[in-house]
Write a structure and sequence with these properties.
Helix content: 25-40%
CATH architecture of the largest domain: 2-Layer Sandwich
Structural class: alpha/beta
Number of helices: 15
CATH topology of the largest domain: Dihydrodipicolinate Reductase, domain 2
Number of strands: 15
Strand order of the largest sheet: 14-13-12-11-7-10-9-8-15
Strand content: 15-25%
Shape: globular
Bound molecules: NADP nicotinamide-adenine-dinucleotide phosphate
């Protein structure tokens, strides 16, 4: 397979918050890798902006350090970094002030493709959007990119949407959920809508249940303060897991086009039933002899914020009525892995008698690590002595199937940034989608607060609290073992 680089028009990309963690770890290294791949055409420029008093040279050395630390890729040869750095410049700007905007405008080139990446806290989105218009940097063709968290609840998300809408049309706003940029997440759509094999079985008649797991081994890291105000429900379920749920459950859109896809995703979120509180388990990782627990990490000894959530939900529509969706995510679990498993129903009648046991097909889509697809099929256990059945995996790792090109595929940020430049919003969340997701999430969180619920403790390196296992056991099901 030969990886293709689809040309884009020359562009100006301004990154507000260019000195911050996200810009240094993700955005700038991603741009460098696209440069190495030959996808940043002559005449394009990347302009960093933040309050720090840097000149172009200072910013270039910051970027060089970030690229060295967080990643080049194949094709990034000696000398490429220097060429990339020549495309970069920097303007000192306080989003709340009025200095520097005219100078920033003077830096913009003649290209009609202008994108403004708000890699700053959401409290600055309004100020930035207003100044982009006031100082005439942005026009009706310009794009703005905003990062999560997009609101803390429905009310704040609505307020953010309204603020952005005062200055930009929805078609200009790119809300990033980097999960949507992952190669395997897009493969979800390819598997579903590119294969005749699966779609006829993709419904409540044949699917027993669906499991979505996003497990992390890391703790809250340096984000303790932010995380403790959010928790796993806001930080992971409302956005990443919800997006995965939408892609796995949505109806086939007529075309792979932004609003066709996003309309179908929105219908899924709107069809979600409210979650019964008996069907949700919250957890918080505890300290052990060697490591501090969640409360020490967030420096809040009384914290009741969850670092783990497992829940069962239902989608009330013709396709999915009666099929439960089980979602779980957490920090400090025993392995880092994301997987979606579609567990099919047992065969209606076993011709092999009761000794053959119960067997079901499972289609598992691994998002990370070792992206790939596994189909669990039932075969005869080899050897004499009658008909004993066993389940074996038909395992396809994309790295093995596609060779080195799979490793070289653009990462989520590379893909999403180039989609912004191309003006393709398919993999970005629309405002009404975000609001619908909060509308479903808010009552769950309010219920916890009303009942004064305290999360169940769980051991570092475990699968989460015991109650999460019981959530499945009560239904006669079990979580799939998550393997690396
Ligand atoms: P950060 O490390 O605190 O960086 C914030 C950036 O904003 C810095 O460049 C800072 O530079 C700039 N800034 C702050 N106040 C400013 C102002 N008044 N005017 C202009 N620039 C200002 O934060 P981050 O981790 O990069 O996160 C940025 C955004 O992305 C946040 O909304 C965050 O929630 C989101 N996000 C981050 C990650 C991640 O992995 N880090 C992941 C997903 C989403 P100066 O101090 O020089 O002004």
């Amino acid at each position: 397979m030969v990886s293709r680089v689809i040309p884009v028009d020359p562009f100006d990309l301004v990154i507000f918050g260019a000195t911050g963690d996200l810009a240094r770890r993700k955005i700038l290294p991603a741009l460098f890798r696209r440069f190495c791949a030959g996808q940043i055409p002559e005449g394009s420029q990347i302009i960093g902006a933040a309050r720090s008093d840097l000149n172009d040279a200072g910013f270039r050395s910051l970027v060089a350090e970030a690229v060295r630390e967080f990643g080049g890729g194949r094709g990034c040869e000696d000398g490429t970094l220097e060429q990339f750095l020549e495309r970069l410049s920097y303007e000192t700007i306080d989003a709340k002030g009025t200095d520097g905007w005219k100078a920033l405008k003077a830096r913009l080139g003649a290209s009609p493709v202008k994108a403004f990446y708000f890699s700053v806290g959401p409290s600055l989105f309004g100020e930035l959007a207003e100044r982009l218009r006031r100082f005439d940097l942005a026009d009706d063709q310009s794009r703005v990119v905003v990062e999560k968290p997009f609101g803390h609840d429905l009310e704040t998300a609505r307020a953010l949407n309204m603020t952005l809408a005062q200055h930009f049309d929805e078609s200009q706003i790119y809300r990033i959920d980097h999960y949507l940029g992952k190669e395997t997440v897009q493969n979800l759509m390819a598997v579903r809508f590119g294969n005749m094999l699966f779609e006829p079985l993709w419904n409540a008649q044949y699917v027993d249940h669906i499991q979505i797991t996003v497990a992390e081994t890391v703790d809250v890291g340096g984000r303790g303060g932010y995380y403790d105000r959010s928790g796993a429900m806001r930080d992971m379920v409302q956005n990443h897991l919800m997006q995965l749920l939408c892609l796995i459950a949505m109806e086939p859109p007529a075309r792979f086009e932004p609003d066709s896809v996003r309309d179908e995703k929105l219908k899924v979120i709107r069809a979600l039933d409210p979650v019964d509180y008996h069907h949700i388990v919250r957890g918080q990782y505890s300290a052990d002899e060697e490591q501090p627990g969640y409360r020490a990490h967030v420096e809040n000894p009384r914290s009741t914020t969850e670092s783990f959530v497992a829940l069962k939900c239902h989608i009330s529509n013709w396709r999915w009525a009666g099929t439960p969706f089980y979602l779980r995510t957490g920090k400090k679990l025993h392995t880092r892995a994301s997987e979606i498993a579609v567990v099919f129903k047992d065969a209606p009648h076993s011709i092999f008698g009761p000794d053959a046991g119960r067997h079901s097909n499972v289609l598992a889509i691994r998002l990370q690590p070792n992206e790939g697809i596994t189909m669990q099929v039932t075969i005869k256990e080899p050897g004499p002595g009658g008909m004993r059945l066993i389940d074996v995996p038909l395992d396809m790792s994309f790295a093995e199937a596609l060779g080195p090109d799979a490793e070289d595929a653009p990462d989520a940020y590379e893909r999403l940034i180039m989609d912004v430049i191309r003006g393709n919003q398919t993999l970005f969340m629309r405002g009404d989608e975000v609001e619908a997701a909060w509308n479903w999430t808010d009552p769950i969180i309010e219920g916890w607060q009303r009942r004064g619920e305290v999360p169940k403790p769980y051991e570092t390196g475990s699968d989460g609290p015991e109650d999460a296992l019981m959530l499945m056991h009560r239904d006669g099901r079990k979580w799939r073992k998550i393997r690396r």
